[in-house]
Write a structure and sequence with these properties.
Order of helices and strands: EEEEEEEEEEE
Distance between the termini: 40 Å
Radius of gyration: 13 Å
Number of strands: 11
Helix content: under 10%
Strand content: over 45%
Structural class: mainly beta
Shape: globular
Number of helices: 0
């Protein structure tokens, strides 16, 4: 059974940092492309960052470039998102997503990030 469990969200002041984690199980993590999405109230879910399965290449939404870093630890089956210089507009529920070689797609349950003074 595939499971993706996000953690690390919370309340942080503008300019602060958080590191999100996504613990994966039930599939071969190293063979999955992984990504972080977010959804703010009243808005559509949007891609924040992705990291590929083979070479670990990364890509970021323009709004987070230079502030967020996606990484993966294949030995720990864990995906990370380091978020620095957080802004109020980063407030959202953050989800991790796994794209498997079988073309199946799985989502975590999400973790809330709130940036507010």
């Amino acid at each position: 059974q595939v499971r993706l469990v996000e953690s690390g969200g919370g309340l942080v002041q503008p300019g602060g940092s958080l590191r999100l984690s996504c613990a994966a199980s039930g599939f071969t993590f190293s063979r999955a492309s992984m990504s972080w999405y977010r959804q703010a109230p009243g808005k559509e879910r949007e891609l924040v960052a992705l990291i590929t399965r083979t070479f670990g290449s990364t890509n970021y939404a323009d709004s987070v470039k230079g502030r967020f870093t996606i990484s993966r630890d294949n030995a720990k089956n864990t995906l990370y998102l380091q978020m620095n210089s957080l802004k109020p507009e980063d407030t959202a529920v953050y989800y991790c997503k796994a794209d498997l070689l079988s073309l199946n797609v799985y989502w975590g349950q999400g973790t809330q990030v709130t940036v507010s003074s």
